Amino acid sequence: MYNLFFLLGICTLPFSPQTPNASQQEVALLKAFASDLRPGKTDWQFNEVHTDTLKLLEFVGDYDYFYGYFESKSGVKLIIFENEKLAPSDVNKTMIVHWQVGRFYQAGEGEAPFLAEQLVSYEEL
């Protein structure tokens, strides 16, 4: 099942160069962050790039935000947010995906920042 977020408007916030320079709010969010691609990992850092082989199941880019639904070889399905790097023609392709912990701001009720996987780059296999 997909980890699905209902988003009314989303935009990327600036990254902190390193966790030690992060605000208290960023540090708290980072400590609570979890990714299904790295179960049990707790030492997350901003700007640390991770690499996984994933298949793009669906591309969504028809609102103010863009993301892909991906699936790993082990069956983990997740959303990776990005900034127009993917295209609808990439659907059903397996690729090497480089991602990092991204900080996003969700407009609407509460208007709170959150962390999620963010696409850095990818290479088609």
Give the secondary structure arrangement, pairings included.
Elements: E1 10-12, H1 24-32, E2 50-60, E3 66-72, E4 77-82, E5 94-106, E6 113-124
Antiparallel strand pairs: 1-5, 2-3, 2-5, 3-4, 5-6
Q: Overview of this structure, please?
A:
- By secondary structure, the protein is mostly beta strands.
- The chain has one helix and six strands; from the N terminus they run E-H-E-E-E-E-E.
- Strands 1, 2, 3, 4, 5 and 6 form a six-stranded antiparallel β-sheet that branches.
- The relative contact order is 0.26.
Key attributes of the depicted protein:
125 residues, mainly beta, OB fold (Dihydrolipoamide Acetyltransferase, E2P), six-stranded antiparallel sheet, 7% helix, disordered N terminus
Give the gist of this structure:
By secondary structure, this protein is mainly beta. It has one helix and six strands; from the N terminus they run βαβββββ. Strands 1, 2, 3, 4, 5 and 6 form a six-stranded antiparallel sheet that branches.
